[in-house]
Specification:
Number of strands: 12
Helix content: 25-40%
Strand content: 25-35%
Radius of gyration: 16 Å
Order of helices and strands: EEEHEHEHEHHEEEHEHEHEHH
Low-confidence stretches: 19-27
Strand order of the largest sheet: 1-4-5-6-7-10-11-12
CATH topology: TIM Barrel
CATH architecture: Alpha-Beta Barrel
Number of helices: 10
CATH superfamily: Aldolase class I
Shape: globular
Number of domains: 1
Structural class: alpha/beta
Distance between the termini: 19 Å
Length: 252
């Protein structure tokens, strides 16, 4: 079995790390460069950087910040936010990103996944999906969770795999920032349909939540923000407990 990954997430707004609940009520969580360095030193397996208002504000991801972070860490680094073209992806990869996370742009132009995976390899392309339950199914939301596309999230995630995405970063908007646990039903449904790695996002509040996401929903990685930013859970302790549970994990 492949080792499971622990991934802190830096949601960036105006050059600062922020965190909210259900995509709203953002509060400052610190300097992203300092946090990135800390997580790299503490044993995080990867790091995700999301410029969360780039699409809404119709601007590019903060290239200079990406360059600064990439020089401070020695772990894989995924960057997302406002990326709309193969050229922008190339610019970010050259700036130090190992992968790019695409969300709103691929919903509007699904062929971008095909073009990007052909140009850079599927391992560099992460399909980010913000899903929220509407009636009895999950819809795909874009533009920082502000617009419901009406797309069926499960069908969409099957499509992104077929088009060449190498990984899915799945955020439950219903659970985001609540610390009530990951959406195990949603994650389990996705893992029944796709064979590429799925990163669970939205709802981490305890170590037990991470264990459940891996053991019950069979995710490949757990992503969290506030529990790490505010030191509610230490990465080393999380990894120690996961290892004691028999979950394969890379040591700190």
């Amino acid at each position: 079995m492949l080792t499971k990954r622990i991934i802190p997430c830096l949601d960036i707004k105006e050059g600062r790390t922020v965190k909210g609940v259900n995509f709203e009520g953002l509060r400052d969580a610190g300097d992203p460069v300092e946090l990135a360095r800390r997580y790299s030193d503490e044993g995080a397996d990867e790091l995700v950087f999301l410029d969360i208002t780039a699409t809404l504000e119709k601007r590019k991801t903060l290239i200079e910040l990406v360059k600064r972070i990439s020089t401070e860490i020695n772990i894989p680094f995924t960057v997302g936010g406002g990326i709309k073209s193969v050229e922008e992806i190339e610019e970010l990869l050259k700036a130090g990103a190992d992968k790019v996370s695409l969300n709103s742009s691929i919903v509007k132009d699904p062929e971008l996944i095909n073009r990007a995976s052909k140009a850079f390899g599927s391992q560099a392309i992460v399909a980010a999906v913000d899903a929220k339950k509407v009636d009895e199914h999950w819809d795909v939301f874009i533009k920082g969770g502000t617009e419901n596309t009406g797309k069926d999230a499960l069908k969409w995630m099957t499509e992104v795999e077929e088009r060449g995405a190498g990984e899915i970063l799945l955020t439950s908007m219903d659970r985001d920032g609540t610390k009530n646990g990951f959406d195990l039903e949603l994650l389990s449904q996705v893992n029944k349909r796709v064979s590429i790695p799925v990163i669970a996002s939205g709802g981490a509040g305890t170590i037990q939540h991470c264990i459940e996401a891996i053991k019950v929903a069979n995710v490949d990685a757990v992503l969290a923000a506030s529990i790490f930013h505010f030191k509610e859970i230490e990465i080393s302790e999380l990894k120690r407990v996961l290892g004691a549970e028999g979950i394969p994990i890379r040591p700190c």
